[in-house]
Specification:
- This protein has 255 residues and is α/β, with parallel strands linked by helices.
- The chain has helices at residues 16-27, 39-51, 66-80, 115-143, 165-184, 202-209, 223-236; strands at 7-11, 31-36, 56-60, 85-88, 146-151, 189-195, 199-200, 221-222, 245-247.
- The chain has 7 helices and 9 strands, in the order βαβαβαβαβαββαβαβ.
- It has a 7-stranded parallel sheet, with helices on both faces.
- Helix 1 packs across helix 7 (223-236), helix 3 runs parallel beside helix 4 (115-143) and helix 4 runs parallel beside helix 5.
- The longest helix is centred in the middle third of the chain and has 29 residues, at 115-143.
Length: 255
């Protein structure tokens, strides 16, 4: 197994892409810290990891909060003594952008976005990545080894007419990935990203159903395809590859 006994943190690890990544890591031998806000989801993923004969640590956290992120890192270090891999997967469209009836409320022009919604989207998709990198990087530098993978989005690169704050945040994550990758390379730490298009996850389907009937949903790729890209970056990509973001499944509007 190519990641035998390495320790990985996966944020947003309870469902969709995060679950697929966590299981792919375990199948390659890693012990996985599964982090999200919903305890039942991450406990279920942890059970699957243990069934693969790998260790799993369940930690509930809101990674938009520095205190929660610090606790996540300290508990991981206390349990395993090291952090080899961080997958920043938490993000997406928060519940604040849905009306009580389940319809999507966020189809605003840029100049119409409420400030509170802008702040929430940026926190959920950009600030959380910054906080996790900030908290994990000192440990990785001390080890002279580490891998950080940011799950980004095609929406950060492709025109996205539906809503303005989400693509702005994802574009910023791409820039953050490039900068952090360059700055940490001399310490033996790589930072890369994966930018998928439409991925078949519960969150994606929830959003798409507010825009069109179920039978008109566009083709979507499975979450396991994103996990495969993560594994490529960790195991097969050139060791000099850092600060890059792999584009997957180009689709108009991104994901």
């Amino acid at each position: 197994m190519r990641l035998d006994d390495q320790v990985a943190i996966v944020t947003g690890g309870g469902r969709g892409i995060g679950r697929a990544v966590a299981l792919a890591l375990a199948k390659e031998g890693a012990h996985v810290v599964v982090c999200a806000r919903t305890i039942t989801d991450i406990e279920a993923v942890a059970a699957e990891i243990r069934h693969l004969d790998r260790k799993a640590l369940v930690i509930t956290a809101d990674v938009t909060r520095a205190h929660d992120v610090a606790t996540l890192v300290e508990r991981t270090k206390a349990e395993f003594g090291r952090i080899d891999i961080l997958v920043n997967n938490a993000g997406g469209v928060p519940s604040e952008l849905y009306n009580p009836d389940g319809s999507f409320a966020g189809a605003w022009n840029v100049w119409e976005i409420p400030e509170a919604i802008w702040d929430r989207i940026v926190a959920s998709n950009l600030k959380c990545v910054f906080l996790c990198i900030k908290a994990v990087m000192p440990q990785m530098i001390s080890q002279q080894h580490g891998e950080i993978i940011n799950i980004v989005s095609q929406a950060g690169r492709v025109p996205y007419p539906l809503e303005g704050s989400y693509p702005a945040a994802k574009h910023a994550v791409m820039a953050l990935t490039e900068t952090a990758g360059l700055q940490s390379a001399s310490y033996g730490v790589r930072v890369n990203g994966v930018s998928p298009g439409l991925i078949d996850t519960p969150g994606q389907r929830r959003l798409m159903r507010t825009l069109m009937p179920e039978d008109q949903l566009p083709p979507m790729e499975p979450a396991e395809s994103v996990a495969a890209a993560v594994m490529y970056l960790l195991c097969d990509a050139p060791k000099s590859m850092t600060g890059q973001s792999l584009d997957l499944f180009k689709t108009v509007g991104g994901a």
